[in-house]
Every structure is written in C-alpha cells, then in structure tokens.
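> call design_seq(struct)
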C-alpha cells in the first residue's frame, strides 16, 4: 500500500512540475509578446510595416503580441533552464564562455542600486554636466511645440537654434520623407545619430528640436540624454493632433480613422522614455506666451546655461 501511495505521490509531483512549466511557458510567451508590442508602439510603426520589414506574417505578429504565439521560443528557454543557464547564453552575439560580458551582466543584475551607480561611474567617468555644456534639446511627440518654442527660447536667450531633421536633410541632400523612402528607417536613424553627434561636437551652446521617435532608438536617445539638457514638452493627445492639423498637415488623419487611438498608444508607450528628460514642461491649456515663460523658468531653475 505504501508503494502505491509513494508511486501516486511521484505522479502528482510530475503533474505539478508539468503544470508549473506550462504556466511559466505561457507567462514567458506573454512577456515576449508584450515587449514586441511595446517596441513597435515606441517606434510608431504599424503591424503591417513591421511584417514587411521583418518578413514575419501579420497573423503571426498578432498572435505573438496577444501572448498566443508559437511556443518554440519558450522551448528554447526551457532548454536553457535545463542546462542551468539564462536564455541569453544561447542567443547572445558574444560567446558567453569566451567573454566576460554575460558574467558581468549577471553580476550587475544582482547588484545593489549603489553598486550599479558606482559601476556606471567607472564605465562612464565623465560627469554629464560637463558633456552637456549649454546645449538644450526639446523632445516630445509631434505637435508638442518643439520647433515653435525652440525658436522662441533661442531668440529670448540669444542662442542658435537648430532642428535635427533640417540638419539631416542638409547632410543627405533630400527631404526626410524621401530619405526614408529611399533608405528606410535604418538609413534615417543612422543619419540622425551622426547629425546629433556632429552638432554636439561643433556647438557648445544651442537650442535643438528633435523628432519624437528619437526615444525609440536606445543608443541614440542615451547619447542625447548624456550630451544635451533635455526638456520634454508634454501635452494631451488631442492637443498634439489639433496642433498638427492647425499647421495644415492632414497626414495624421488621412485615410486613417483610428489615427487618434494610435497617437494615444504611441504617447502611452513612450511616456516612460520621455520622462527620462531632465525637465518636463506641460503646455496643456497654456498660451504660447505662458508655455515660453514656463520653459525659460525651467532652464533658469535647472541652471542649464550655467558654465
């Protein structure tokens, strides 16, 4: 009888392990789907555009983003766990057995907040305030007022004003929309980073307006945060849309009745990224004069132009 009980206990244990594994598998697939969906929203591209760029069907992308994708990716994780490894060991570009990269990442993952800060200070010893000089950059969604407030701010402070997209057009010799059509987002993003670096190398003092999607490129956005004082011009989605339409640009709504929903989705997905800026100025329900006053006050309070 005890043998039967013991055997039943083993069966129950196996069933429990299988159930736990299935639950973890579903959670993993859901997490991957959420990250794909978030990354797509932050880049502001449709599922169709991602499908064309990646060669993966829209149907599969829809399943993946909803958390019901193919379990093969989860099986790879199960194999890694069975080998007592994290999945990065099987998919990382660097050989984890020949490089310290994965080991350092594992140690950093378990480090305290203070230890992480000290590591970053060692790896990036230059103090941000020295790198940023007196460069001020406005970030935010299209229609935030970056160009308008940027020019007015520069005029008030007697500083040069630049628009990053205009610099990109100068370098490429063509309008941004033609550049993207010819070289794709990759070509545009490459020139965006190069232009940002060139401006930082040639201007110690200026006001800069950048495109809203720059936050979707981690390395480029990190460079911007390290080398420019950043101000997020924040507004409600309805105000963003109204301002763009008031400028005579009807592209956001053309043939797309769901444009406002998409705008809200993009803003929601990027909020945490925009919030990394040193300062936030909400222009909601403010006149242009009031918004300018708020920006100038932030620049003074934060001592962005103090040598």
């Amino acid at each position: 009888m005890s043998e039967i009980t013991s055997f039943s206990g083993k069966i129950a244990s196996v069933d429990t392990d299988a159930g736990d594994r299935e639950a973890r598998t579903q959670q993993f697939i859901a997490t991957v789907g959420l990250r794909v969906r978030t990354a797509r929203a932050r880049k502001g591209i449709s599922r169709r555009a991602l499908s064309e760029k990646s060669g993966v069907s829209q149907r599969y992308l829809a399943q993946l983003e909803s958390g019901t994708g193919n379990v093969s990716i989860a099986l790879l994780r199960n194999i890694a766990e069975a080998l007592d490894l994290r999945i990065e060991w099987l998919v990382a570009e660097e050989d984890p057995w020949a490089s310290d990269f994965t080991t350092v990442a594992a140690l950093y993952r378990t480090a305290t907040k203070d230890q992480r800060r000290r590591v970053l200070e060692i790896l990036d010893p230059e103090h941000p305030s020295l790198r940023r000089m007196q460069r001020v950059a406005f970030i935010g969604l299209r229609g935030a007022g970056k160009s308008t407030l940027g020019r007015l701010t520069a005029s008030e402070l007697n500083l040069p004003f630049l628009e990053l997209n205009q610099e990109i057009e100068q370098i490429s010799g063509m309008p941004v929309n033609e550049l993207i059509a010819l070289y794709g987002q990759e070509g545009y993003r490459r020139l965006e980073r190069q232009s940002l670096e060139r401006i930082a190398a040639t201007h110690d003092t200026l006001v800069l307006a950048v495109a809203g999607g720059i936050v979707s490129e981690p390395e480029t956005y990190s460079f911007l945060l390290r080398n420019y004082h950043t101000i997020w011009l924040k507004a409600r989605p309805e105000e963003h849309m109204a301002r763009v339409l008031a400028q005579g640009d009807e592209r956001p709504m053309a043939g797309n009745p769901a444009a406002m929903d998409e705008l809200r989705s993009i803003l929601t997905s990027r909020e945490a990224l925009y919030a990394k800026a040193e300062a936030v100025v909400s222009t909601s329900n403010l006149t242009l004069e009031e918004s300018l006053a708020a920006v100038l006050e932030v620049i003074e309070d934060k001592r962005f132009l103090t040598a």
